[in-house]
Amino acid sequence: MTTKFFSTGIFLLISYWMYLIYNPFLISIAVAGLLSIATASAKVSLDKKFNSPMISAGIITSLLAFLLFGPIFYFLITITSAVNSFDPTSIEKTMILIKDLLGTIPHEFQLYTNEINDFLNKIDYASISQSFLSILGQTGAKSASFITDIILILIFFFMFHIYGEKITVFAVRAVPYQGNKIKNSFKEISSTMSTVSYSIISTAIFEGALFGVFISFFGYDGLFFGILYGFASLIPVVGGLLMWLPLALYELSQGDVQSALFIMLYTVIVISIFADTFIRPLIIEVINKKVNKTESEIHSLVIFFSIVAGLTTFGFWGAILGPGVTALFFGATTLMEEEHSTKSKT
């Protein structure tokens, strides 16, 4: 008994120091672990084909790197060019045009026209331009931090796939449940994470394509704005607004009211309402049934809201953490329920 307590104490002490050392990387480790669970079935298939964990892990990691780095590098290159060609007077032109539009409103509808004009007259356009450039600079800095996070995630993701089998064997031995129960729970979690990962990629590509193709007809870079909208689509409620509003205001500054109105209506009705509200849950449902060999018992709406909750709490990577933690919760609940049922029968 003394040896057992001593071993437990040593393990807890070492675990505490491991936590202190790796605490700055916990989010990256968690995201990488959940992504490795989501791609576990693909890893197994590649292992059978190449008979080398190193090669299959390298292939999956390379594909993930391409999906994450490709859009980001294109975004950074394009945004750098946009900053260099930014015209500060475009904001003032937009405000002047809005004033002109207010002057065309019939008298009986001009209840708050004077107040709006007073507000516009008090705006410091130079300050707004500086703030806009500052936001772009902060975006570049955050992008650099985001790239660092991606690199760490890719490293941990590769390591998880290399040592995934050993980690699984250790977990099965360490947890005081029957091996088949642990495996069933792992399949459920893997199924849920596969659904989440594939649905995030699918909906981002789908909504990004809808916006990119549409906006290209107005002379904009469809690939660039499609990538931006794909990432923005992960942000709850205001994701689409962050994309169409600046473009609509720019069209207003150029005097093209019809194009500005068309951009707003298309994005709100076709993408925000139809695609985001109806198509996104449908994509999750189809992937849940067709892609996964083991159908997840977690309802698609639960997965959808767990994505929203994760994004709200953890930011971009919450899209992985939210559903992952939810799947772990349901898996732990199922284990406890089965264990309680077994004890009741005995």
Describe this entry's structure for a reader.
This protein is mostly helical and 346 residues long. It has a domain of 120 residues. 84% of the residues lie in helices and 0% in strands. The protein has 14 helices and no strands. Helix 3 packs across helix 4 and helix 9 packs antiparallel against helix 14. The radius of gyration is 25 Å and the shape is elongated.
Radius of gyration: 25 Å
Are there runs of 5+ residues with pLDDT below 50, and where? none
Intertermini distance: 28 Å
Overall geometric form: elongated
Quantity of strands, as a count:
0
Strand content: under 5%
Compute the average pLDDT: 74
Number of helices: 14
Structural class: mainly alpha
Query: Major sheet, described briefly?
Result: none
Helix amount: over 70%
Order of helices and strands: HHHHHHHHHHHHHH
